[in-house]
Amino acid sequence: MCPTVDVFEKRIAALEGGVAAVAASSGQSAQFMTIAALAGAGDNIVSTTNLYGGTYNQFKVLLPRLGITT
What's this protein's family per the entry (predicted)? Predict the structure, then answer.
């Protein structure tokens, strides 16, 4: 773990009154970490078709490989 990131996460958690925080290097990685934590094989995600291209690709290519339908 990067010490700078560790300090950043702790400070964000304190600012928000939370127990912990997770920092991500991009919106795509933050989105994937969230979906991976909340959804699993056999789950279905309902979304609009008006998505950012990277999100659309993640929903149509990566998530089905994990057994998550969209």
Answer: Belongs to the trans-sulfuration enzymes family.
Q: Report CA-CA distances (Å) from 22 to 2, 8, 53, 62.
A: 12, 9, 24, 22
Does the pLDDT of residue 1 top 80, yes or no? Answer: no
Domains in the chain, number: 2
Same domain, 26 and 43: no
CA distance 54 to 62: 11
Residues 69, 47: contact at Cβ < 8 Å? Answer: no
Instruction: Kindly report the average pLDDT of the chain as a whole number.
Output: 94
**In Å, how far are 1, 18, 34, 42 from 59, measured between CA atoms?**
29, 29, 13, 14
Q: How far apart are CA 40 and CA 22, in angstroms?
A: 20
- Identify whether residues 46 and 19 lie together within a single domain: no
